[in-house]
């Protein structure tokens, strides 16, 4: 899943070397923390959060076969 997130975000940012995805797995959920360069945060979120919502939709769909809820936080 980390590779999927990186693949989606890499073309959007100017500093792809600073993309980091950390995973925190709990009993009932998996949380992915996406960290990008400060200048790229707006590009990943998009106007009114449209790009962030689209990324989350793809990630949630890809993890739909999992028994745990999946969350994506953009730091």
From TrEMBL:
Give the keywords, sorted. Answer: Cell shape, Cell wall biogenesis/degradation, Chaperone, Cytoplasm, RNA-binding
Q: Where in the cell is it found?
A: Cytoplasm
Write down what this protein is called: RNA-binding protein KhpA
State the signal peptide span. none
User: What would be one Pfam family of this protein?
Assistant: KH_KhpA-B
The record lists the organism as Halobacillus seohaensis
- What is this protein's function? A probable RNA chaperone. Forms a complex with KhpB which binds to cellular RNA and controls its expression. Plays a role in peptidoglycan (PG) homeostasis and cell length regulation.
* Broad class of the protein's primary localization: cytoplasm
Enumerate the InterPro entries for this protein. Answer: KH_dom-like_a/b, KH_sf_prok-type, KhpA
């Amino acid at each position: 899943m980390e590779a999927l997130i990186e693949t989606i975000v890499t073309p959007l940012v100017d500093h792809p070397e600073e993309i980091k995805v950390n995973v925190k797995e709990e009993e009932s959920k998996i949380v992915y923390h996406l960290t990008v360069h400060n200048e790229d945060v707006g590009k990943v979120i998009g106007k009114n959060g449209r790009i962030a919502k689209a990324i989350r939709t793809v990630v949630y769909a890809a993890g739909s076969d999992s028994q745990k809820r999946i969350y994506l936080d953009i730091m």
